[in-house]
């Protein structure tokens, strides 16, 4: 079994976070070190460490990440100008927390996708 991260504690509300949305499949909360005016993390409630562990049974929860991203982007007023959704995997991807999460970033021009 994969080791729990701080995100499991946030999902269970055992530690504080600014939760913007929660349902039976996913939880969305503000990133503690925002990289843009809007920086929200959307995570499945079930622990999936990385995209390498994604299975067909996760499709409903992982699809929900997108519908919640759409809703939160609209609520933040960034849908029209646009935003970026990012999922990092393992060390080369820059993943720090081993509980799959989608970053929703926006509120300013975000520049090129990758720094060189
Ligand atoms: P990643 O590099 O894709 O694994 O992103 C992990 C993100 O989690 C980083 O942007 C961190 O700032 C964020 N983060 C870590 N701990 C917390 C926390 N307790 N509450 C909110 N965001 C967090």
TrEMBL record:
Keyword Lipid metabolism: no
PANTHER family per UniProt: HISTIDINE TRIAD HIT PROTEIN (PTHR23089)
Keyword Hydrolase attributed: yes
Domain HIT: 6-115
Enzyme class: hydrolase
PROSITE patterns (alphabetical): HIT_1, HIT_2
Positions of transmembrane segments: none
GO molecular function annotation: hydrolase activity
Descriptive protein name: Purine nucleoside phosphoramidase
EC number: 3.9.1.-
Residues spanned by motif Histidine triad motif: 99-103
UniProt keyword terms in alphabetical order: Hydrolase
Any Pfam family hit: HIT
């Amino acid at each position: 079994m994969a080791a729990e991260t701080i995100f499991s504690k946030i999902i269970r509300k055992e530690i504080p976070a600014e939760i913007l949305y929660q349902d039976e499949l996913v939880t969305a909360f503000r990133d503690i070190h925002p990289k843009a005016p809007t920086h929200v993390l959307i995570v499945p409630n079930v622990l999936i460490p990385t995209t390498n562990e994604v299975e067909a049974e996760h499709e409903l929860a992982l699809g929900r990440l997108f519908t919640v991203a759409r809703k939160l982007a609209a609520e933040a007023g960034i849908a029209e100008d646009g935003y970026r959704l990012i999922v990092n995997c393992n060390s080369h991807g820059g993943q720090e927390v081993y509980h799959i999460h989608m970053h929703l970033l926006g509120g300013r021009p975000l520049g090129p996708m990758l720094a060189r």
